[in-house]
Amino acid sequence: MNTRKPVAGEQPAEGPLDVLIIDGEEAFAAACRRTLEHAGFRVATSGTAGQGLALAETRHPGVVLLALELPDMPGAEALGALSRQAPAAVPVVASAHGTVDAAVESMKLGAFDFLAKPVGAEKLVETVRRGLNLSVLRKEAAGPGAAGAQAPDKYDLLLQGLDVLGEAYSLGLEKRQLLDELTWLENEAKYHAESLGQIKKKERVILDIRNDLLESDVIMRRYDFHKNALIQVLLDVQEKFRWLPRHVLNWISGRLNIPVRDIYTIAHFYEAFSLEPRGRHIVQVCTGTACHVRGASELLTRISATLGVKPGETDARQAFTLETVHCIGCCALAPVVQIDSRYHRNPSKSQFEKIIQSLEKEEVDTCPA
Amino acid sequence: MSRIETPADLARLRDQAVARRNSRGTWVAVCAGTGCRAYGAEALAESLEKEVEKRGLGKKIGVRKTGCHGFCERGPLVVVQPSDVCYLGAQPKNVPAIVDKLEGKDAALDKLLYVDAENGKPLARLDEIPFYKHQQRVVLGDNVHIDASDILDYIAVGGYAALAKALSGMTPEEVLQEVKEAKLRGRGGGGFPAGRKWETTRKAPGEPKYVIVNADEGDPGAYMDRSILEGNPHGVLEGLILGAYAIGAGEGFIYVRQEYPLAREHAQKALDQAREYGLLGENILGSGFSFDVKIHRGAGAFVSGESSALMSAIEGHVGEPRPKYIHTSEKGVWGKPSCLNNVETWANVPHIINRGAEWFTGMGTEGSKGTKIFSLVGKVNNTGLVEVPMGITLRDIIFKIGGGVPGGKKFKAVQTGGPSGGVIPESMLDLPVDFDELTRVGSMMGSGGMIVMDENTCMVDTARYYMSFLAHESCGKCVPCREGTRQMLRILDRIVAGEGKEEDLAVLEELGDFMEDASLCALGQSAPFPVLSTLKYFRGEYEEHIREKRCRAGVCTPLIAYDIDQETCGKCGACLRACPVAAVDQSADKVFTILQEKCIKCGACFTACPEKFSAVIKVPAYAIGKPSAGNPPPAGKQV
Ligand SMILES: Cc1cc2nc3c(=O)[nH]c(=O)nc-3n(C[C@H](O)[C@H](O)[C@H](O)COP(=O)(O)O)c2cc1C
């Protein structure tokens, strides 16, 4: 990643790119670029596949954000061309037709991820970051001088075979054996494409985990990997990930030489820790004594009914987690609910709905397009 | 800035700090404690700063974000110094008028002044407002004057003078002796004499020794420790350093609960600054005494505030208590002598060293000296933090300072001591507040939570509330507490659901006695108090729940139902709109009814129904469907 932040609106004229956006939809491309530049990446955009592919070849972007709908070439074709011309670039496909089929198809064709438009800013940055990690690995794997051609894998061979067979078929060489061959190859290709997709998925999960572990190392380093700092480490992990992922706990166990069992004992003992992922927004109804005598249970019942989740639960979209908390020290506002870092005094159903809606709107607003 | 090497350096620095403060004739202190922040105090302070700057008054008028002023009910709070004029509930839109006034112009600010409830006259000055007038603010006094994130502010108002005095002219024994003579008792709950505890740690064999600040503040409904640490962290730190000097400790901890991010931030800043100035670290003020402090965050467990549990948490283990055949003051953190005191206890120490034990013992009662801070909350007009001399009556606190119960409701009881305390009925309101008196009537001082309850508070529900808190917080290590709290909760759950049995009350008392005797730590030993004290003073309410299936306060949801009084209903539909589960039905001719099978009893309709109709009413659950069948008549809004 480059340290110099490009001035917004200016295309970096030369040098390697972190991200190349190939998309005919100007507003979307511009919005994505702003978001990504804001996150510190070097970004260029191109409105056509032709220009984009040329840029990809010369500027070695780590990640290419490719629209399926392009003015001069079908997206699938562009994806194929991209993997031939810039094999180290990690393609991420974006489409307004966010169907499962489109997604599966692009993954089969080698896309690293599929984003349905509109795309949330956080999601976009996170995907690009993961993609860049992979591209680093790819470049490492390719080694010096190996930047060019990648050995065609079995999957490519199969595709070529399919091509040849298809050609023969279209020439009218309608032989039974040829047909059988075709079906067999088709199945084989499908099978490999699927397992390739799965491998990619696993690859992504592994990368994510690796990142998490690196993060937790950073946290443990703050305390010199000291055993006694376990609770402090867990508090930082909780703050960072909003919960305590299992792989992180196992990792900490090994690093600090503490039995996993002891770590779980602590994680269960204290209120601050969550062993399940929490929502993007935390709704905390204070159930301190002052709030209790001023109607906190009614408030909790009301909010729980409005959100459709019970205390301690997160909604299906991972947007809101409802919790109770013993006294947040705002007794004058009793009964009070804290939503993220804001406090609200006894909101009625409609007031609460407004707050929730404005939070959801904020999320949408930060999405490009 | 340079390290302070000697008391003379400190005096010079103080002169500079005072000069810096005096360079501006007027200061506007905006309370930026957590409570006022919730009301938008930060935006207010910012807009004040901008306005002052805009009018070119930056050299004359300063804006200072301070810690909690205490009168949380009326935030955001603004105090103009030196005139001490107090603006309540100020909003950014009032800023131009406030600055006009500061410039000496006429400005209509009456709306922001406190209005005397009796004669309707505005009271401008802080010390005229009844809420402040009857207090004696020793520990909280500086909060209004200092920016907690600036050590120079603290030094300007006399901060670290006690430390300089002790390190340059007193032996550790003399410091200890002063605290002993002041008869300072621990403010964290038990009221154990601080001097005695210090002496035990001092004399205990083992090195190093530790001193620890307990800022875990687990009592739900109390926030004085947070406000002290947020508003005046150097005051606590100075006390801690003095204690360390007297005890001979080389290292200290501040154990602060993770739910208090601002307190932690300010404490951390205070440590950093003190270290920078040489007030922490090696050879403090050239005295040869060295001491440093770390912050440890608590991860949210009530029992972790108990001394042995807290120390176990500092070691990185589960914060569970251990049997205390040997006190933590002798064998605490890592088996070393460790002296733990509450935030407020430590914060008293610099004042004692500065002004002497005699001054301190001049306040309070025979057995309880000095002042105590209470968080006065619940059904009271002036919610806030109040610091009063020991010995003041509960009535004075609740009615003179707190302004009584809102909405013309009748006072029922006051709860002190948090989950380890009990309720005190109206007949005992003239009780002087002191450690021993409160214990004598079955409650306790506790850390200072004071929850006022009115006729709409159900005592059985209150007992159940504390028991559910304790059953949840019980660490489970000892059987009496783990099983006792659970069983008591089960019985109370039954009673509030209208399924109580006559013999339940005796079982509750028996269980309570047993837990008091047999539990491992004070959590279990005191867990029955909220139940036993409500049983003692409000047995009738328990019996009503059991025999008549009636909750007179209209709180216990299984025993009540909501209904709409068709005669007073204004057909406005507010209830229908407020209901989160569509349990309000509207017929073709605009008759609103509550569908009982859908109703979740959240009270939304009850709150939403306009005062002038008051048509949504609480009725006993058994009355629903047959309102005229000879059952007690439906109670109105004032159930
Ligand atoms: C269950 C339980 C919770 C406690 N929580 C706190 C607390 O949050 N803050 C506190 O200062 N003391 C708390 N205490 C009291 C401490 O054990 C200890 O007595 C106190 O911190 C000593 O300080 P003091 O002598 O200055 O009061 C608690 C005690 C028990 C049994």
Describe the structure.
The complex is a heterodimer of chains A (369) and B (639). Chain A has a five-stranded parallel sheet with strand order 2-1-3-4-5, sandwiched between helices. The longest helix of chain A has 47 residues, at 176-222. Chain A has 369 residues and is α/β, with parallel strands linked by helices. Chain A is elongated, with a radius of gyration of 26 Å. Chain A has three domains: 19-142, Response regulator (Rossmann fold), CATH 3.40.50.2300; 175-269, no CATH class; 281-366, Glutaredoxin (3-Layer(aba) Sandwich), CATH 3.40.30. In chain A, α2 (49-59) runs parallel beside α3 (75-85), α6 runs antiparallel to α7 and α7 (176-222) packs across α9. Chain A is built from 13 helices and nine strands. Chain A has helices at residues 26-38, 49-59, 75-85, 100-108, 121-142, 154-170, 176-222, 230-241, 246-256, 260-269, 289-293, 296-307, 349-365; strands at residues 19-22, 43-46, 63-67, 90-95, 113-116, 281-286, 320-325, 336-339, 342-345. Chain B is of the alpha/beta class. Chain B has five domains: 18-130, 3-Layer(aba) Sandwich (Glutaredoxin), CATH 3.40.30; 151-361, Rossmann fold (3-Layer(aba) Sandwich), CATH 3.40.50.11540; 371-454, Roll (Ubiquitin-like (UB roll)), CATH 3.10.20; 459-548, NADH-ubiquinone oxidoreductase 51kDa subunit, iron-sulphur binding domain (de novo design (two linked rop proteins), Up-down Bundle); 557-623, 2-Layer Sandwich (Alpha-Beta Plaits), CATH 3.30.70.20. Helices cover 38% and strands 15% of the residues of chain B. Chain B contains 25 helices and 19 strands. In chain B, β5 (114-115) and β6 (122-123) form a beta hairpin. Chain B is globular. Chains A and B meet through α8, α10, α11 and α12 of A and α2, β11, β15, α18 and α25 of B.
